[in-house]
Design brief:
The chain is α/β, with parallel strands linked by helices. The chain has a single domain (9-186), classed as HAD superfamily/HAD-like (Rossmann fold, 3-Layer(aba) Sandwich), CATH 3.40.50.1000. It has seven helices and six strands; from the N terminus they run E-H-E-H-H-E-H-E-H-E-H-E-H. Strand 5, helix 6 and strand 6 form a beta-alpha-beta unit. Helix 1 (38-45) packs parallel to helix 7. The protein is globular.
Length: 190
């Protein structure tokens, strides 16, 4: 990358934020269901002067339920739908490992965010992570990034789990569109 200027980023979890979370994992393009408001929100976010990066745990690969190529095809399909609706995703990062692998990339560890920051010249303190799980919030904080929890996906269950994270103000909003609106009105990407 020739531009060395740091830019803020909007980091997004995939399942439960952009697409419906499935108890049995998203294993095919046919199982991809975009959440209401996600495409409109991403179209608005595309106009912002920031990177938009998906960081997603995908143990479905480590469990042998989906090949890495299958996951890449699903992500490409989601990307195509987002672009067709006027949005953009600048980069996709995924952790294919099982939770017990204790890898550096699986959220709540910040590995994917740190890799994206290095690859894309991202200003982590000026960035925001939008997720539906406590692990997203913890990964954001470990990377020095702000976090927003959405109630879609697992978020409706994880709101109560925020208390043990500490006295850090984590906005909890309805969905991705509301999170992106919060970013704009609170001017978080600074």
């Amino acid at each position: 990358m020739s531009d060395h200027t740091l830019k803020p980023a909007i980091f997004l979890d995939r399942d439960g934020v952009i697409v419906e979370n499935r108890a049995d994992y998203v294993k095919s393009i046919a199982e991809v269901h975009i959440l209401p408001g996600a495409l409109a929100g991403l179209a608005q976010a595309a106009r912002l002067d920031c990177r938009i990066v998906v960081v997603t745990n995908q143990s479905v690969v480590g469990r042998g339920l989906l090949s890495e190529q299958g996951l890449l095809a699903i992500n490409a399909h989601i990307d195509d739908v987002i672009v067709a609706a006027g949005g953009r995703i600048d980069a996709w990062y995924f952790c294919p490992h099982l939770p017990e692998a204790n890898c550096a990339c699986r959220k709540p560890k910040p590995g994917m965010l740190l890799s994206a920051a290095a690859d894309w010249n991202i200003d982590l303190p000026a960035s925001v992570m939008i997720g539906d799980a406590l692990s997203d919030v913890e990964a954001a904080h470990a990377a020095g990034t702000q976090a927003i929890l959405v109630r879609t996906g697992l978020g409706h269950r994880h709101t109560a789990d925020l208390a043990p994270v500490g006295p850090i103000d984590v906005p909890v909003v309805r969905d991705l569109a509301a999170a992106l609106a919060h970013i704009a009105t609170a001017q978080l990407l600074t």
